[in-house]
Amino acid sequence: MRAAYASATKPDEPLAALTVGDLPEPSPPEGWVTVDVRASSLNHHDVWSLRGVGLPPDRLPMILGCDASGVDTDGNEVVVYPVIRDPQDPRGFSLLSERWPGTLAERVAVPAENLVPKPAGISFLDAACLPTAWLTAYHMLMTRGRVADAESVLVQGAGGGVATAAIVLAVALGKRVYATSRDAAKRAKVAELGAVAVEPGARLPERVGVVIESVGAPTFEHSLKGSAPGARIVVCGATGGPFPKVDLRRVFMMQLEILGSTMGTAAELTELLELCVDRDIRPVIDSTYGFSAIGDAFARLNSGDIFGKVAVDHLH
């Protein structure tokens, strides 16, 4: 079957480690099922894998991809939940494409419990954008951030999949949303999504109850200063650097919570799909590529000039 996979790892030239070609069909162990993939989407996790982060040489070649929607062997339309229980991993889990082959192929094998029904009202392409970035944003807002107890939200670094998802979801939940970006064009798109766009570090009209933080060092001081008493700063990444300066006086005086967050549960993915149907929410898609142009899709993601998800149509 055709697949997009890491044939090597190249820290300085990740796209040079990407290969598109034929690999063997999945051989699922007992309790696993095979899904015919109709659509997938890319994540920065895929580029980090090509750099060798979390993907040692002894696991190569490794089919990339965490996100997919498709049809199972019984003909059911499904969304793939990409988190696999993994006692060998210190986290207790791993993602597809870390230890088990990922979704950027004609077929993928996963545990049966990792299949979530796809609602009829959501397309395969839209559904394939949800399991990683959108699920992460949902878990950050709803579970870790307890956004139901907040009136306003700050999202740092608009443009990427998680940040864009957080903006759309928080607006749909009726919150006042502020989002930062260095790029004026992205700030204009933030406003189109119903949020207030601000430049990085700019003073906010109010202190917020929840901060969605995926940038790290360049924005963390702003996240602290923009937080209301008792606010939750939820961190899922550090694309700008992992070692911010933290004024602990502000943390304890304002009784702030700094919370780590990674992915979400299969039940939350079901809730997210239901929310998308109920509120007529659809993921922001930056661009869509046929599988035959998946190299271009990776180049688009790696350019950093995206707003939303990079989706892949496996039927073209």
Q: How would you sum up this structure, described in words?
A:
The strands form four sheets. Strands 3, 5, 6, 9, 10, 17 and 18 form a seven-stranded mixed beta sheet that branches. A six-stranded parallel beta sheet has the order 13-12-11-14-15-16. It has helices at about 45-50, 125-130, 130-145, 160-170, 185-190, 220-225, 250-255, 265-280, 295-300, and strands at about 1-5, 20, 30-40, 60-65, 65-70, 75-80, 85, 95, 105-110, 115, 150-155, 175-180, 195-200, 210-215, 225-235, 255-260, 285-290, 310-315. The chain has about 325 residues and is an alpha/beta fold. The mean pLDDT is about 95.
List keywords for this structure.
6-stranded parallel beta sheet, 28% strand, 18 strands, alpha/beta, 316 residues, 7-stranded mixed beta sheet, single chain
Rounded average pLDDT? 96
Q: Helical proportion?
A: 25-40%
Number of strands: 18
Distance between the termini: 15 Å
How is the main sheet built?
Answer: 7 strands, mixed
Number of helices in the DSSP assignment: 9
Regions with little confidence, pLDDT below 50 for 5+ residues = none
**Class from secondary-structure proportions:** alpha/beta
Helix-strand string: EEEHEEEEEEEHHEHEHEEHEHEHEHE
What is the CA-atom radius of gyration, in angstroms?
A: 19 Å
Based on CA inertia axes, which overall geometry fits?
globular
